[in-house]
Design a protein that fits this description.
Length: 322
């Protein structure tokens, strides 16, 4: 009898969880209109508009210009970090916390906040590349769109004709070292991974570019703190946190989805700890750090890759200007 009761309770629990999942997803999808998206984006306080959004490829130039410019008086070394919030929509920034938020902390210190876009061209022109993970991050790291770097979607290996800043800056001895930190195997840890050839190239040529595959987001977060904590940490750190993307695929990319909001808060808290670790470095006062927080793409429903405004609009917060 007791066994039957336990089975019945388990069945009811599964049904309840399923109903909650589908209800949350339905409510998120049905209310996720373009009009509401525009209203929420306007409420964030971006310095530009959807119509004047900046191509995400421009982040490449910001990083490159940072390392090529002269050091300010009193500084002896340049450093840069990109904190990537994978699949983070531009409207969810209205939900940022005031405590333990990397974005809020940066804005309080005068950082710029801009709308950027993925997909090759700005909305409403038809996409020239998928609004997906591999094309988005590759466009940021190479400064060009898929018609040049060749990554039109996930599971495509990039050729060495177009190298990322991680490799080119190290190879040209502009910086001493770089670090790539992520949990997704699709970047460089499986067959057809985006940067598989580049990783092999760096290893074969003894370039100081580390490719760190972590088991989950917490491990990526810990690896970031470990790298920052090194006395001679990588000059350019590129890290991707994926709570928003994973939650979006499972429960829906939507401002209306409380799970998606929680995922954003988690990613932003990781970012906050990374910024705190940078400021705690013994050599921080002598270092000039460029900090960039950005996203590769947005999402709608439980997916992305398409042409909707919700998928194509991203954001960039940094202690510099485009």
């Amino acid at each position: 009898m007791k066994k039957k009761i336990l089975i019945a309770v388990a069945v009811l629990l599964v049904i309840g969880l399923s109903l909650t999942f589908y209800f949350t997803r339905y409510m998120s999808d049905s209310k996720d209109t373009q009009e509401l998206f525009r209203e929420n984006v306007a409420a964030v306080g971006y310095e530009n508009t959807i119509e004047t959004a900046i191509p995400q490829t421009e982040i490449y130039n910001v990083i490159k210009n940072h390392f090529s410019s002269e050091l300010p008086e009193g500084k002896t070394e340049k450093k840069a970090i990109i904190l990537g919030y994978d699949g983070c929509r531009a409207d969810i920034l209205t939900q940022m916390q005031q405590e333990n938020s990397a974005i809020a902390a940066m804005l309080a210190e005068g950082a710029s906040i801009s709308l950027t876009y993925c997909g090759g061209v700005n909305y409403p022109a038809p996409n020239t590349q998928d609004t997906s993970t591999a094309p988005g991050w590759c466009s940021i790291l190479t400064g060009v769109w898929a018609d040049v770097h060749g990554i039109t979607g996930n599971d495509i290996t990039k050729s060495l004709e177009t190298k990322t800043l991680l490799t080119s800056l190290t190879e040209e001895k502009v910086i001493d070292s770089a670090a790539f930190i992520t949990k997704w195997a699709g970047h460089f840890s499986r067959k057809n991974a985006t940067y598989l050839l580049e990783k092999e190239y760096c290893e074969e040529n003894s370039l100081a570019v580390s490719f760190n595959k972590c088991k989950n987001d917490k491990a990526s977060f810990e690896a970031t703190l470990e790298e920052i904590g090194k006395k001679d940490c990588a000059d350019f750190i590129f890290v991707i946190y994926e709570p928003t993307d994973a939650t979006g695929h499972n429960f829906g990319f939507s401002f209306n989805n409380p799970r998606y909001k929680e995922a954003f808060v988690t990613a932003d808290a990781y970012g906050f700890e990374a910024l705190s670790a940078i400021k705690e470095r013994e050599t921080y006062d002598k270092e000039e750090w460029l900090v960039v927080i950005t996203s590769d793409h947005g999402g709608i429903g439980t997916g992305h890759g398409g042409e909707s405004l919700q998928e194509r609009m991203t954001f960039t917060v940094m202690n510099s200007e485009f």
